[in-house]
Each structure stands twice: as C-alpha cells, then as structure tokens.
C-alpha cells in the first residue's frame, strides 16, 4: 500500500514548446484521454506557461503521451521545485530518498543539463548552478556523451523578452523521461513531400489535428476535402486506415499544373498514395475518390472513427459544388461519362460547415471526433459564431492568427448522441445551431483587409525624391 502511494503521489513535469500555445492543452488532454487518464495539475497551473506539473499519472502514461505529442518537448519525473534556490533545496530534501536511489547508484552514469526559458546563461553560470546541487547524493560517474540517467535543472524567466528578470520566477529539477515528437515536423516537412498542392497542410498542424482527433491504430479516418492528403499522411503515421474525397478531379488524380517551384507539370506518380508510400504507410491507404461534399454518397450508418479536414475558404482554393440555379439541367448532346464536366455553383461557407457537421453526426461512431478549421474575420468574431449540432459536443476551439484581421480556428467536436428526427427540428429552432452565415463574405473581407494593409504600408514608406 505504501509503495502504491509513493508511485501515485509522484509528480511529472512537462516542458512544452512555446509555439501554437492555444493548441497545447487540447492535445495533452486528448492524449491522456486515450489512456483514460485525467488532466490533473497543480493549483498554480498556468496554461500559457511552458512548464506543467501533472499528478496522478504513471511513468508509462507519460511515455505514451510523449510518443505522440507535437506540442510537448520533454518530460521529467519532478523531484523538486520552488520560486528560489532555497525553496528548491528544501523541496529536493523532502523528496523520498527511496525514489531517488535507483538512479544514483555508484555503478551508474549520469549528467545534469541546465535549461533556461527566455534567458541565455553563459557556460560558467550553468556550471555554478550544477555545483549548487552537490547536496544531492549522486554516487555514479559523470558521462556527458552517453549517460544512463539524465537530470535537468529548468528555470522559468517568464515569457516577456523585453522584461527578463535577474532571477527566475520558478525553478524545477527532475529526472528526464522522454522527449516529444518534434522531429516529425522536420521529417514530414511538405518541402520533402512527394506530392503537394497550394494548400497542403504543414506537418506540425497535421499531427496536432490527428492528436486532437484521438486518432489511433486501426481507426478509420476520413477527410471530405482531402486535397493532396497531408492529413491522411499524419493520421496513417499513428496506424489509422485513411480515405478521403475531393471535388477536384485533377488533384485526386495528380494531374495538371504542379505547385512546386521550378516544376511546370505534375509527374506520373504524384498522388496521395505515393505520399503514404514515401512514409511507409501505403498499407493503411484505403482510397480517395472524386466526390462533392454537399452530395450524400455514403451509406447512412456510422462508419468513421474520426473526420479530420481543412475545408476550402475561397482564398487559394475555390468553394464550389456541383449543381445549377436553373430548374432543369439538360446534359450535352455529346454526353459521355468520361468527358463530362458537371456544372458547378457557389458553395457558401455556411453550407459547407452545416453539411460537414450534419455528415459527422450521421457518419461518426459514438465518441468519434470531428476536427476541422473554421476561418473567421477577427473584428466580428465571437464564440457564438462557431457552428453547433445537437449530436456533437464542442471540445476545444483554438486560434491560429493569419493576419491582423483574419485567423482560423481549429474546432474539435465529439459525437455524444445518435441523430433523431427531433434533432432536425431543434437544429432549425435553436439559435445556437444557426449556420455560419455571418462569414459567407469571408473571402471579400480577407482581400479587403489585404488592400487596406497595402495602402497603409504604401503611405508609411517614404518616396525617393527625384
């Protein structure tokens, strides 16, 4: 019982990257949820801080989280912490000696790193801080190249680069456990991708989306606006079977003009399947097909464990759907299936998101997640503008700023009930479920903002005298 208590009472420290700050908490919560573990932090928890103390977890839980997280940089078994060196010393001396003992043996090797957030220390200062830890009973041999155990002293100097204090706000010391998956940002970079397009999602955000969706091995994941398949690549990395649709025939089949610099036309093997083959996950590729997201082509029963997508906003990709405003559409006289180009019409953002949420409500398994991007005009944005559905519960809403006047929000929703006939009526009657009509003019506002910015920049730039 005492042993169990000691293990349960251990604290762990997450050191998080200081980019995409809005996305960190939903990602860590989602990864813990996959382990059925709660997100339990200290009373002094600050979401904006790069250091989070977690309670009630095992080392295996931490390792599993770090094996997937993109926002997390490193994790530690926290041995002590404080706002001053004296508080840190007191805290370390209170830490159970039996918990330290396995890592301080005489026949072991170790090293101590010093990490400072928002401040750079010279080498001698780092050595002084390490020497100040001589009260700890290290018995092993220092090995800087390949130690058995790594310890770290972490100091937090706040997040304001223009007001760096002399002394840190908080100091932590602990045993390193594992690093996050930041390397995936480089190894999956779209610059190295075999097949890319104008709107290919970058690797960092693709993996974050997959984590928010709680994608796991053997899941079936669907992207209704698949494009060049960046999101399928990320989801397949975690062992999910992937499929998608898109209205753009050329993109699906990998033909037409190339998006890569210094390349005029796409090659014969530039397609989504080739992207998954590049990363060794071709066996998880179900298929993609040309399809209009506004038209029902799937059976009505639930099929997908997750829907992860980036709908078009009308900026670099048009928002079109098949159809016409005419009452009767006559096929051309020389109609033959292969050469027929269907008539298309505008697909308003409000309709795109209403259709997407309705599709998710009918085709996600219970507990499955929908993760998608919602473009917004910042001066007019309020949380009530986020589309809702009676069968879907909003889990998180994270902002990525695009400009001073526009941004997009990563929306994560979870299916919590099966659709009923009454849901259709409540969807029409309840103002909370009003479609996203307020931003149907997002494209016009986006370019209007760019025009105003260019005019302002032009006025601010002095002209050369002739």
From TrEMBL:
One of its GO terms (cellular component) is cytoplasm. It is found in: Cytoplasm. Catalytic subunit of the TRMT11-TRM112 methyltransferase complex, that specifically mediates the S-adenosyl-L-methionine-dependent N(2)-methylation of guanosine nucleotide at position 10 (m2G10) in tRNAs. This is one of the major tRNA (guanine-N(2))-methyltransferases. Residues 192-322 form the Ribosomal RNA large subunit methyltransferase K/L-like methyltransferase domain. Residues 414-430, 457-466 have a biased composition (Basic and acidic residues). Belongs to the class I-like SAM-binding methyltransferase superfamily. TRM11 methyltransferase family. Keywords: Cytoplasm, Methyltransferase, RNA-binding, S-adenosyl-L-methionine, Transferase, tRNA processing, tRNA-binding. Residues 11-182 form the tRNA (guanine(10)-N(2))-methyltransferase TRMT11 N-terminal domain. PANTHER family: RNA METHYLASE-RELATED (PTHR13370), TRNA (GUANINE(10)-N2)-METHYLTRANSFERASE HOMOLOG (PTHR13370:SF3). Residues 414-466 are annotated as: Disordered. Its main location: cytoplasm. PROSITE patterns: N6_MTASE, SAM_MT_TRM11. It catalyses: guanosine(10) in tRNA + S-adenosyl-L-methionine = N(2)-methylguanosine(10) in tRNA + S-adenosyl-L-homocysteine + H(+). GO terms for biological process: methylation; tRNA processing. This is tRNA (guanine(10)-N(2))-methyltransferase TRMT11. Part of the heterodimeric TRMT11-TRM112 methyltransferase complex; this complex forms an active tRNA methyltransferase, where TRMT112 acts as an activator of the catalytic subunit TRMT11. Its EC number is 2.1.1.214. InterPro entries: DNA_methylase_N6_adenine_CS, RlmKL-like_Mtase, SAM-dependent_MTases_sf, TRMT11, TRMT11_N. GO terms for molecular function: tRNA (guanine(10)-N2)-methyltransferase activity; tRNA binding. The lineage of its organism: Eukaryota, Metazoa, Chordata, Craniata, Vertebrata.
């Amino acid at each position: 019982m005492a042993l169990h208590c000691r293990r349960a009472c251990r604290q762990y420290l997450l050191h998080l990257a200081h980019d995409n700050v809005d996305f960190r908490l939903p990602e860590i919560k989602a990864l813990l949820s996959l382990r059925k573990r709660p997100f339990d932090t200290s009373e002094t928890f600050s979401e904006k801080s790069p250091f989070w103390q977690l309670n009630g977890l095992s080392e295996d839980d931490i390792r599993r989280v770090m094996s997937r997280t993109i926002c997390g940089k490193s994790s530690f078994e926290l041995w002590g912490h404080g706002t001053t060196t004296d508080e840190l010393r007191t805290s370390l001396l209170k830490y159970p000696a039996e918990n330290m003992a396995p890592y301080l043996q005489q026949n072991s090797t170790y090293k101590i790193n010093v990490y400072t957030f928002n401040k750079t220390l010279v080498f001698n200062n780092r050595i002084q801080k390490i020497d100040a830890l001589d009260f700890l009973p290290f018995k092993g041999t220092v090995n800087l190249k390949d130690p058995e155990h790594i310890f770290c002293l972490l100091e937090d100097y706040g997040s304001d680069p223009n007001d760096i204090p002399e002394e840190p706000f908080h100091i932590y010391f602990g045993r390193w456990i594992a690093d996050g998956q930041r390397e995936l940002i480089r190894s999956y970079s779209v610059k190295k991708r075999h097949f890319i397009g104008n709107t290919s999602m970058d690797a960092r955000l693709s993996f974050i989306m997959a984590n928010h969706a709680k994608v796991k091995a053997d899941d079936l994941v669907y992207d209704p606006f698949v494009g060049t398949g960046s999101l399928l690549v990320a989801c397949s990395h975690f062992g999910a079977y992937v499929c998608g649709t898109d209205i753009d025939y050329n993109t699906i089949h990998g033909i037409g003009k190339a998006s890569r610099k210094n390349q005029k036309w796409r090659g014969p093997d530039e397609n989504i399947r080739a992207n998954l083959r590049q990363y060794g996950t071709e066996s998880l590729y179900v298929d993609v097909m040309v399809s209009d997201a506004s038209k029902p082509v799937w059976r009505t029963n639930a099929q997908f464990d997750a829907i992860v997508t980036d709908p078009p906003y009308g900026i670099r990709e048009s928002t079109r759907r098949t159809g016409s405003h005419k009452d009767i559409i006559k096929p051309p006289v020389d109609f033959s299936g292969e050469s027929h180009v269907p008539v298309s019409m505008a697909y308003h953002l409000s309709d795109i998101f209403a259709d997407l949420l309705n599709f998710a409500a009918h085709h996600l398994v219970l507990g499955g997640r929908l993760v998608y991007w919602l473009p917004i005009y910042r001066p007019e944005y309020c949380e009530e503008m986020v589309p809702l559905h009676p069968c879907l519960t909003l889990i998180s809403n994270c902002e990525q700023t695009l400009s001073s006047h526009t941004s997009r929000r990563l929306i994560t929703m979870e299916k919590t009930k099966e659709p009923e006939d009454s849901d259709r009526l409540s969807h029409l009657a309840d103002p909370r479920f009003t479609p996203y009509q307020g931003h149907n003019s997002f494209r016009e506002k986006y370019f209007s903002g760019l025009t105003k910015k260019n005019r302002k920049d032009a006025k601010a730039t002095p002209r050369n005298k002739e």
